[in-house]
Amino acid sequence: MTGQVRTVDGRVAGRRGQATRQKLLDCLSEMLSSSPYRDVKVIDVARKAGTSPATFYQYFPDVEGAVLEIADQVAADGAGLAELLEGRSWAGRAGWQTAQELVDGFLDFWKKNDAILRVVDLGAAEGDKRFYKLRMKILNSVNGSLTGAVAELQAKGRVDKDVNPAAVAGSLVTMLAAVASHQKGFTSWGVKQAELKPNLALLVHLGVTGRKPTR
Amino acid sequence: MTGQVRTVDGRVAGRRGQATRQKLLDCLSEMLSSSPYRDVKVIDVARKAGTSPATFYQYFPDVEGAVLEIADQVAADGAGLAELLEGRSWAGRAGWQTAQELVDGFLDFWKKNDAILRVVDLGAAEGDKRFYKLRMKILNSVNGSLTGAVAELQAKGRVDKDVNPAAVAGSLVTMLAAVASHQKGFTSWGVKQAELKPNLALLVHLGVTGRKPTR
DNA sequence: ACTTGTCCTGTCATGACGTCAGCTTACCGA
DNA sequence: TCGGTAAGCTGACGTCATGACAGGACAAGT
């Protein structure tokens, strides 16, 4: 399935090599959590992994290349977010629960991977196609389902004709991602974590169904 | 009012110095638009401004310091976003128009300053207080008014009691900012610019009033 | 022990960083 | 007109990260 892991100079990596490679990725991940992206240096990652910069360059072209690798793993994990919406109903009380669980799951995922995700966000915003694609891969899992839900309700006449399902779904997903990235900002607006979630769920429910939830 | 502009080593900057300083800021701004933040180097900015790196360091401690300066100017400009909501009504047709104009104004502002704003966003997400404060300064102008609008409707009983005005307003503002940053992402979801805006306005209207707009 | 291929690092040229002393320019009062 | 003074700029320098290479260390099979 996935082609063998290869070093930059074309050799196939063996067991030991793969371990070193992974260790470098882990250390890079940690560094991204603890220092600004701009200040993450190859030499620091290598030192932290107990190896030399030259070793780093054997496995990755540069910091960005390694970041893309991590992001790939996260994106694969993120595809599981689709389950949050698989076979869920948006009607009545069930709809309210669907919205709540979506918000919960999404925020958890984002929080767990916040460091790498904000780098992906930056790369995508800067127009880098590789980051852009990864961001899409993550968001699409949720966005597709959400678009489908809106379109379905629209077909049943329960949502206005002039609503664009993809636009609404995309905006909601983007909102969830951004709010997750800036949760701290809400505390200075006097909003606590616990209060934030139901209000987000409310917005999602309103956006998808056009109606207030029945709780 | 504003204390005199000073060089890093404490001298006050005269006319010529201020011009050089501003030129450096302008060139930095351009570079932020054309290359990834991580790759913006002092030496490139200086070259572009037709001066030497040493001159750059006379006015700014580092690239980040200069970015903060630009962001300050943008934040001052962004305070004007409050006008988009000053004295507006959220009732009936007027409410729909308010939502539309808010979306329009916000997206325009973000697009005009996208390069610097995504750096501010990154800094804030990374927990840097200086960037965080600037982001707040920009968003507060809109968020305050929006929170007020929701709270007012809530007082009149037209919005549910258990809605947290600040949480809803903050989420909507965050959504606008994020969507503006990732407008390109929507095209790959098959959503055109022109379609995006009314759907965003719909979400804003729904969030603020809890009802569909009358158009 | 010997070969083979993987894995790592010492070393080096290159180039960015950030500081400093010192040169040039502009302004101002005598 | 002529210094004097402060502003403005840069060349030069030590330090450090980058990225490439060749060669040494190591494990595994023969």
TrEMBL record, chains A, B:
<dbReference type="InterPro" id="IPR001647">
    <property type="entry name" value="HTH_TetR"/>
</dbReference>
<keyword id="KW-0238">DNA-binding</keyword>
<dbReference type="GO" id="GO:0000976">
    <property type="term" value="F:transcription cis-regulatory region binding"/>
</dbReference>
<dbReference type="GO" id="GO:0003700">
    <property type="term" value="F:DNA-binding transcription factor activity"/>
</dbReference>
<dbReference type="InterPro" id="IPR050109">
    <property type="entry name" value="HTH-type_TetR-like_transc_reg"/>
</dbReference>
<feature type="DNA-binding region" description="H-T-H motif">
    <location>
        <begin position="41"/>
        <end position="60"/>
    </location>
</feature>
<dbReference type="InterPro" id="IPR011075">
    <property type="entry name" value="TetR_C"/>
</dbReference>
<keyword id="KW-0805">Transcription regulation</keyword>
<dbReference type="Pfam" id="PF19352">
    <property type="entry name" value="TetR_C_38"/>
</dbReference>
<dbReference type="InterPro" id="IPR036271">
    <property type="entry name" value="Tet_transcr_reg_TetR-rel_C_sf"/>
</dbReference>
<dbReference type="Pfam" id="PF00440">
    <property type="entry name" value="TetR_N"/>
</dbReference>
<protein>
    <submittedName>
        <fullName>Transcriptional regulator, TetR family</fullName>
    </submittedName>
</protein>
<feature type="domain" description="HTH tetR-type">
    <location>
        <begin position="18"/>
        <end position="78"/>
    </location>
</feature>
<keyword id="KW-0804">Transcription</keyword>
<dbReference type="InterPro" id="IPR009057">
    <property type="entry name" value="Homeodomain-like_sf"/>
</dbReference>
